[in-house]
Amino acid sequence: MKGSKNNKEFQETDFSKFSNEELADAFVFPMEDAMTDQERKQESDFWVNRRKQFENRSPRQKMHSELLQLKFQLEDYIKSNQYKESLNFGYFLNEYVSRQDKKDKEFASEVDVTPAVLSQYMNNHRKPKDEFVIRLEIHSNGMIPAINWFKVIQKDKEHEIMTNQDLRDKENKHVKKRLELIY
User: Fold this and answer.
1) Residue 11, pLDDT score
2) Which residues have CB under 8 Å from 120's CB, separation 6+?
3) What is the CATH number of domain 60-162?
4) What is the pLDDT of residue 156?
5) For residue 36, with 0-12 CB atoms within 10 Å meaning exposed, 13-18 middle and 19 or more buried, which class applies?
6) What is the C-alpha separation between 108 and 171, in angstroms, rounded?
7) Non-local CB neighbours of 144 within 8 Å, separated by 6+ positions
8) Strand 8-11 and strand 2-5: pairing?
9) Coil, helix or strand for 80?
C-alpha cells in the first residue's frame, strides 16, 4: 500500500510474510561479533567494577536507591489505569518509612504526628490530612512530591466511589427526579 505523508512517498511492509528469524535478523544488530577481544575485556571489566560499586554502597546510598525505587513505583502506579487494592496510600507510606529503616514512632516524631495517627494512616483506617501529605514531601526533601501522594489517595477514592454500591443505593432515595433522556 502506498501513501503520502508530508509529500513523501512511503510503502507499508507486510511483515506477516517473514519468519520470526528473518524479522529478528533484520532488526537486531548482533554486537558480540563486532567486538574485539580488547572491547570484550573492557566491557567485562566495566561490569565487574560496576558490581563492586553496587555491593559497596553506603547505607545512605542504599536508602537513597530504595527511596528512588519507591518513587518510580508510585509514579508508575498513579500513571496506570489499573487500581490495585494492595497499592494504596497506606502501602506506600509503610514502604516509605520502612525503606528508611526507621521505627514508626521515630518517623511519627519527625513529621509531628502521634504514633497512633501514623498507624491509622498506614493501615488505611484514616484518610491523611492535607498537612500530613505536605509534610511527607518536605520530609523527603522534595523527592516524592505531595501531588503524587494526593494522586494515590485520589486513586483510592475513585475506586471507592466506583465500587460502593451500598452508597449508591443509600443515596438513590434522596434523588426525587431524574433527567429523562432518550438514548
Assistant:
1) 64
2) 126
3) 1.10.260.40
4) 92
5) exposed
6) 38
7) 67, 70, 71, 74, 96, 136, 137
8) antiparallel
9) coil
59 and 66 in contact (C-beta within 8 Å)?
Answer: no
Q: How far apart are CA 128 and CA 135, in angstroms?
A: 11
The candidate with the shortest Cα–Cα distance to 152, out of 169, 136, 141, 171, is 136
Specify which residues 11 forms β-bridges with: 2
Which residue from 40, 10, 13 is spatially nearest to 26, judged by alpha carbons? 13
CA distance 53 to 46: 11
CB 69 within 8 A of CB 143: no
Query: Between 67 and 28, where is the model more confident?
Result: 67
- Grid coordinates representing 78 are 498513579
- β-strand partners of 10: 3
| Three-state secondary-structure class, residue 140 | coil
pLDDT digits (tens, 9 = 90+) for 92-134: 999 999 999 999 999 999 999 999 999 999 999 999 999 999 9
Identify the weakest region by mean pLDDT among 41-50, 112-121, 133-142: 41-50
How many whole angstroms separate alpha carbon 7 and alpha carbon 151? 44
Q: Where exactly are the structural domains of the chain? A: 60-162
* Amino acid at site 3: G
Radius of gyration of the chain (CA): 27
pTM, two decimal places: 0.71
